Amino acid sequence: MKDLLRLRTSLSEEIETLLNEQIKVEAHSSATYLAMSSWCNRQGFDYSSDYFMKQSHEEREHMLKLFTYVNDLGGHAVSPEVTNIPQEFDSFRDVFEKALQQEIFVTQQFNRMADRCFKAKDFMTFQFLQWFLKEQVEEEYVARRALELFDVIGEEGTGRWEIDKNVRKIKYGEGAAE
Ligand code: FEO
């Protein structure tokens, strides 16, 4: 039965498993960003709350892109269980530090997957992953620029409110704070 199912997809079991693992990572990222959005909102950092809400939507789109790819190729995309979402953060800065760490982890995941696809001669998935690798350059850039605001502006006095206001101005390729 298993062999018959395999004939319906050109995805190897290994690559399909990796793609499903990544679907889970993206779902986890989306839920984590949602928790970050809620935390910022509760602290009165409205712009950062919106920023993380937008990031959460993007991660869900990434998840769906992977999900659709697996099913389009005749594989079995698994709807992920999402658990262990951090709801509390030590500080405003901690939220942005965790966000950058998350993006770096995701980049490493895609690099690892691309390496496995190349070795397994799955060039179709290898090519599909290029979009995500390119996207990670932008995601890391934005997360890094946001975190840098803490050093550029400083947290003293009204610093955190200034940081919050500047978070919304970060655009890839256009520099950070004005
Ligand atoms: Fe889907 Fe931010 O990586």
From TrEMBL:
Top-level taxon: Bacteria
Presence of keyword Iron: yes
Keywords from the named record: Cytoplasm, Iron, Iron storage, Metal-binding, Oxidoreductase
Gene Ontology terms: cellular component: cytoplasm
Example GO biological process: intracellular iron ion homeostasis
Binding-site residues, Fe cation: E26, E59, H62, E103, Q136
Pfam family, one: Ferritin
Catalytic activities: 4 Fe(2+) + O2 + 6 H2O = 4 iron(III) oxide-hydroxide + 12 H(+)
Domain Ferritin-like diiron: 9-154
Family, similarity comment: Belongs to the ferritin family. Prokaryotic subfamily.
Function: May alleviate iron toxicity in the presence of oxygen. Iron-storage protein.
The name this protein goes by in its record: Ferritin
